[in-house]
Amino acid sequence: MPSPSSSLAIILVLSCALLGGYASMGLAYRHGFLDAIGDCIRIAHGSASPSTECVLVRAHEYHRTGYTGIKHVDGYFAVLLEFFAFGLASGAGPGETDVEGLLASTYMATLFCGAWFLMAMEGLRKRNAGGLLSYTGSFGLVFQMLTVTIIAPIYHALHLLGLPQIQDFDTVAVDPLDLRLLPWSTVISYLLPTLGLALTQLNVLSPKATYLAIALWQPFPLYQSIVHPLLRAMCWGSTTSSPRKAQHSPEQVERSLAKAYRFILTLCMGVHLVVVGTLIANHLHPDLIPNLSAARTLAPTSLTHPPTLAMANTPVPALASRAIVTGFLRWDIYCASASFVLWAGYLAYHAERGPGFVGVLEKILFWAVVGGPMAPAAILLWERDVAVLKRTRDSQVSNKRK
After folding, report:
1. Band of the pLDDT at 297, cuts 50, 70, 90?
2. For the residues of 33-89, what is the DSSP string, one character each?
3. Could you tell me if residue 402 is inside a domain?
4. N- to C-terminal Cα separation, the chain
5. Residue 378 DSSP SS3
6. What range defines the domain where residue 382 resides?
7. CA-CA distance, 34 to 83, in Å (whole number)?
8. pLDDT of amino acid 76
9. What percent of the chain has pLDDT over 90?
10. pLDDT band at 64 (very low <50, low <70, confident <90, very high)
11. Looking at the 3D structure of the chain, how many domains does it have?
12. Residue 224 domain-assigned (yes or no)
């Protein structure tokens, strides 16, 4: 049975799912945006009723009638692709770069990468091996179909429900080989497909290529589920010959964890500082990038006056649809980031029993300013790991003396 503090942590992370789910999926359904996308697709495919009208002005005039050959899967996939196509609509003219769109999408994609990296790492922990939480690829595919703001808190709640009273070596240990390969598998499976999405903001892709870039990005959790074991097999000759069950010292694990955390922190902090620095510079010198808005680039949209209200006046311009999608995705990743921070903060507090609530809160605020919403989660998990591994080393030394 979870402790009172663990129960509170579970309630808090699940509240992130409720808020994020309402602000993203809930409002999109409530005001008819997702239904409107479905209508536009059915009209393009010739399967709509005569009275059906497409009220969305589309930025890309391209459609495929099938992807997998399975009707219901193709229908859902078509909505998903069209949704992201609206979100990637460019606000710049032909041959120009949509700087605001590029900064906003890069920032969100980086946060998403941070969330995915930390979840993938958690699935590799020794204590999770073979259990439900190790199937991060499956969780990833589900949050691609639903939203990360719903699935990530559920993952965190499941983890907290199974958390032992004392976090031991197995709770934090990851095979050093997996930790060395995780950045590479993340680059191949997530970052490379994401570069294709970035090209849409540069106005260098045709409508067909834009949809191809979106389609190639969608199953990145599946890519990682394939790429990571393949990289492991390349290192050891076969996955079965790899000594996954070998005992690694706390020092080995700590060094490997440090490199993995530095990778994702460098990525998140680097993009955060570049984006925020660009916005600050433009605020001081407005002529630097005309029409660049910090609010449109980073701020979550209003819940009382959301962009989805544009659906009340049809036809809906392409940039209004883009505002709906970016508002959806911003709430999606910000609430998921909050869940990661709450989860990591509880784990750090539970393991260290030192800094207390105020100390953890100070770290969260500092690293959020310096590195963005996902940086505090990485820092707190890293500190938790170091504390547990130090306790393991101290215990080993004490046992030897006896």
Report:
1. very high
2. HHHHHHHHHHHHHT-S-TT----BPPS-----S-SSS-HHHHHHHHHHHHHHHHHT-
3. no
4. 34
5. helix
6. 4-394
7. 8
8. 79
9. 54
10. low
11. 1
12. yes
